[in-house]
Structure formats: C-alpha cells, structure tokens
C-alpha cells in the first residue's frame, strides 16, 4: 500500500478494529451494502472509523474522529435479501487526511496509511498481563457475564487487550482513546483504568492496588 489512499469509510460508533484483529459485521443499510459490493469488486478493504457522536444522536453526516483502521475483507456472505455478513481483518491504522467529494452513497476519504507503526508489538510484562486478566475477571463478575476464562487465558497479549477493548461497553471516546494509544503496553494500562471505572459504575467495589 502506498502512503496515502482513498478508501470507503464505515462510520460506526462503538466499533473499533485493530491491526491483526478481526471484526464481524452485519451490513443491512443500502448505502453500506453498496460499499461492500464496491469494495469486494476492488481492493477488498474499507476503513472502520468512529463518528464523534453516538447512534442515539441520529446525525446524518456526523463529524469523524481522525484515526481509524483499515479492514481487509476476509469473509463475505451475501444473504438472499441482499444483506451481507462480513468479517474484517485489521491491517493498519490510518489518519484521516480529508474527506473526498464523491457521488457514492457512502463516504470516502483520503487517508495516511503510514501514520502509525503497526508492526507486531512487544509482549506485555507478566505483572501487566496479570493485571489485565484480573481486572477483566472482576469486570465480568460485576456485569454478570459468563466468560470462558480458560480460552481467554490462552490468548496472546495483543489479542487479549484488543479483544477486551472491542467488546467492552465503553463509550465512544474511551474506545477511540484505546485505538489511538501508541503501544500495546499503553493500551493495556488505559484498558485497566477503563475497566476499573466501569466496574465501579456497575457497583463492583473499589479498585485494587496497581501491580506495576
């Protein structure tokens, strides 16, 4: 990929994608069905990006955050009624340069594909890994979730941190902050703080002492 490219955008609040992570999507709106059809016939990639509003705000053309992630289409199922089930594989984060004036029903933008150094990260320290796992368990208990913790423990550090960041019910701004963190260790540190705040909001008690 060149340093910059024009890509179709899928603005979806609360949905973030990281390099080397996957994101399943159900595409039903006509404009985004057209986007998937066009992408599948071309470079087979779209840009996942968050609007700076929630879905409840119901804004037609919301302003966007400046950072998103390229999603390569690695799974595609067209349903009988024209909807799609899609699986995206994150490749690299991008920074928005400018939205393009286009005639498509979906938004497109020119983006900087070299804004982040998204090589595979160094693993977390043992104490930090333990802290992420412990706080995830506490949050899961506070929210009454049923989790296969043995499967969670088998995830590598990057998959663990990014999976929690994707599925935890953080607000749009918190999700964006996690996406934009420069290193895995920094993202893990922020994730622990966000889980603690969310757990306390759920009535899950005080935070525990930091391990590092």
Note down, in words, how this protein is organized:
This protein has six helices and six strands. The C terminus is likely disordered. It has two domains: 109 residues, Archaeosine Trna-guanine Transglycosylase, Chain: A, domain 4 (Roll), CATH 2.30.130.40; 76 residues. Helix content is 34%, strand content 25%. The longest helix has 18 residues. Helix 2 runs parallel beside helix 6, helix 4 packs across helix 6 and helix 5 runs antiparallel to helix 6. It starts with a strand and ends in an 11-residue tail after the last helix. With 212 residues, it is α+β, with helices and mostly antiparallel strands. Strand 5 and strand 6 form a beta hairpin. It has a five-stranded mixed β-barrel with strand order 1-3-4-5-6.
Q: How far do the termini sit from each other?
A: 39 Å
Range of strand content: 15-25%
CATH superfamily of the largest domain: LON domain-like
Structural class: alpha+beta
The assigned CATH architecture of the largest domain is Roll
Got a strand count? 6
User: SSE order, as H and E?
Assistant: EEHEEEEHHHHH
Strand order of the largest sheet: 1-3-4-5-6
What kind of assembly state do the chains in view correspond to?
single chain
Query: What can be said about the biggest beta sheet?
Result: 5 strands, mixed, barrel
Any idea what the radius of gyration is?
18 Å
């Amino acid at each position: 990929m060149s340093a910059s490219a024009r890509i179709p955008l899928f603005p979806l609040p609360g949905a973030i994608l990281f390099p080397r992570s996957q994101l399943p999507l159900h595409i039903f709106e006509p404009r985004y069905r057209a986007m998937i059809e066009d992408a599948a016939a071309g470079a087979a990639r779209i840009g996942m990006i968050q609007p700076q509003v929630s879905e409840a705000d119901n804004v037609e053309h919301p302003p966007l955050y400046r950072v998103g992630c390229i999603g390569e289409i690695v799974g595609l199922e067209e349903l009988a009624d024209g909807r799609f089930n899609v699986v995206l594989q994150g490749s690299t984060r991008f920074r928005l340069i400018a939205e393009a004036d286009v005639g498509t029903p979906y938004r497109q933008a020119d983006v900087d594909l070299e804004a982040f150094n998204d090589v595979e990260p160094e693993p977390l320290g043992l104490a930090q890994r333990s802290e992420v796992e412990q706080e995830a368990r506490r949050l899961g208990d506070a929210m009454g979730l049923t989790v296969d913790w043995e499967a969670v423990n088998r995830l590598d550090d990057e998959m663990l941190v990014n999976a929690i960041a994707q599925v935890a019910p953080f607000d749009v701004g918190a999700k964006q902050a996690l996406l934009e963190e420069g290193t895995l260790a920094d993202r893990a540190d922020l994730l622990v703080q966000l889980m603690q705040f969310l757990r306390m909001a759920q009535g899950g008690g005080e935070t525990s002492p930091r391990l590092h």
